[in-house]
Specification:
Blueprint: H1 3-12, H2 16-26, E1 28-31, H3 37-45, E2 52-57, E3 64-65, E4 67-71, H4 77-100, H5 111-120, E5 129-133, E6 138-142, E7 153-158, E8 166-168, E9 171-176, E10 183-187, E11 194-198, E12 201-206, E13 209-219, E14 222-225, E15 227-232
Antiparallel strand pairs: 1-11, 2-4, 3-6, 4-5, 5-15, 6-13, 7-11, 7-15, 8-14, 9-10, 9-13, 12-13
Helix pairs in contact: 1-4, 2-4
Length: 239
């Protein structure tokens, strides 16, 4: 069995009923140890390789302090496997959200079809990225939309171990509740953990049905060490 098959089997055997319930109810879900340490170390070791189409200095654009790099097509096999393997399990949640909010919109059953929707809209640049923060690094609250076509759920994989390789650098998700103060969720995933979370907005059930809650995500300042993560977005970008 190849490493890629092992990863696909790991994803297939996850408790997707429970994961999707948590994702639907909270707007995010942490799934433990999806990537083994060898995968994490390999992705980090290739940070300086020629596998990227674009590098972004966060400070230059006032996005924070740190750097991230977008992978180019063809993507590394592990990233393609993650995109294609996870997508079919979470698309029912995305479509349920659209239904609950009364939107006449449904997402296709496979990632290949989702990617085609992006490309038909002129969004042909891959959005998978690896992020690196050193001491003092952070990422301001934002949404990863990249164009008119976007999938409402995305994921990030932690590649270093919190409190061993770095301190601080928590993953932060905010919820802007209509006519109320924002809610903040602070997560500290371990090495290899997958975090599924809302790209833009999600439904929340109130006394008169479901209402829309806008969400953003970011990273709090790193106090020491170096922090790497792998971000995987299911739609592509205009540029």
């Amino acid at each position: 069995m190849t490493p890629e098959q092992t990863l696909k089997d790991r994803i297939k055997n996850l408790d997707w009923d429970q994961i999707n319930k948590t994702l639907h109810d909270n707007g995010f879900a942490i799934v433990k140890q999806v990537l083994g340490e060898r995968y994490c170390d390999t992705l980090i070791s290739e940070y300086d390789a020629d596998a990227y189409r674009k590098a972004v200095n966060m400070e230059r654009y006032r996005f924070g302090y740190g750097e991230y790099k977008y992978y180019k097509y063809p993507l590394p096999a592990i990233i393609t496997d993650l995109r294609e393997s996870v997508y079919p399990y979470i698309v029912p949640v995305a479509n349920k959200w659209m239904n609950e909010l009364g939107f006449d919109k449904r997402f296709p059953g496979t990632h290949e079809e989702m990617k085609q929707l992006s490309h038909e809209a002129g969004q042909t640049k891959p959005t998978a990225l690896i992020l690196q923060y050193t001491e003092g690094g952070f990422n301001t609250l934002h949404q990863d939309l990249y164009g008119e076509v976007y999938f409402p759920i995305q994921m990030v994989f932690m590649l270093d171990q919190h409190d061993r390789d770095y301190t601080g650098g928590e993953f932060v998700i905010t919820e802007q509740i209509p006519r109320a103060q924002s809610k903040v969720n602070v997560l500290t995933p371990d090495m290899g953990d997958m975090v599924l979370f809302t790209t833009n907005f999600r439904p929340v059930k109130g006394s008169k049905g479901y209402y829309r809650v806008n969400m953003k995500h970011g990273v709090s300042p790193v106090h020491s060490g170096k922090r790497h993560s792998l971000g995987i977005i299911f739609h592509d970008a205009l540029s």
